[in-house]
Amino acid sequence: MRRKIAELKRVLKKIDSEREVQRRRRSTKINFCLVGYTNAGKSSLFNRLCNDSVYVADRLFATLDSTTRRLPFHGRAEIMLTDTVGFIRKLPVNLVASFRSTLKEVNSADMLLHVADASADDMEDRIVCVNRVLNDIGAGEVPTLLLFNKIDLVKDRGYLRNLSVNYPAGLQVSAKTGEGMEQLINRLQKLALNLYIELEIRIPQTESRAIKLASKLMQISSGRLDDGCLVFTGKILKHEVPLLENAGIRIGGINGYTE
Ligand SMILES: Nc1nc2c(ncn2[C@@H]2O[C@H](COP(=O)(O)OP(=O)(O)OP(=O)(O)O)[C@@H](O)[C@H]2O)c(=O)[nH]1
Ligand SMILES: [Mg+2]
To answer: What is the pTM of this model?
Structure first.
């Protein structure tokens, strides 16, 4: 048994480091993460949004590992979406091995899509429970969009009307029928575009490393030469601006990216 445990620990460590590499590779993209109570329909929504077929089942903890895909719809922002392990009341967060990758994904996400089962009698309790877990794992500050799923099962339309009054920023969807998906995709695109800012940078022509870094991080829309410096304008993810600053790149003309 001891040998087996050691072997499993070794495998877990390897998976962890592979994931870390994948995560770093994704760090210059926008990362959205589906979270929520187990059985809320996260994997079903993931499949619908990404045209994928990850395991879906009417049981607790159908998903035991996180999966990431690029959202295929064509917008101006490229978004990576991650499906995660479901939360549950009294989840021993530091004990569940399969939860480890979810913890990291959730904490490094630009936005969380909190999926709630609108057909569950104790939906509100579950939302509170999920929020508590998010706080416990240090993700309380990550911006969140609430998704009320399974509305096809809710016969009482008045209930749905109340939901939209009580949670005006939330969206009502059905992974099963596809209802609300178009609004969801539009909202995701808008939220993604808000994560960018447009700015102008100045780099001395001779600083090839800084130029390389800038062209990796920015989507450059124009460039010109001015007094021995390359002047680029373009957009960049807000959280990546410090990477330019740390490289000593001069930044000017920061405007919020709107459209
Ligand atoms: N009627 C209906 N059923 C749904 C909908 N979305 C998901 N389901 C069903 O709900 C069950 C759970 O769906 P999953 O997508 O596996 O849920 P999950 O949140 O990923 O669950 P875990 O991985 O266990 O956390 C499955 O039986 C799905 O078919 C929906 O919009 N309407
Ligand atoms: Mg799942």
So the answer is: 0.81
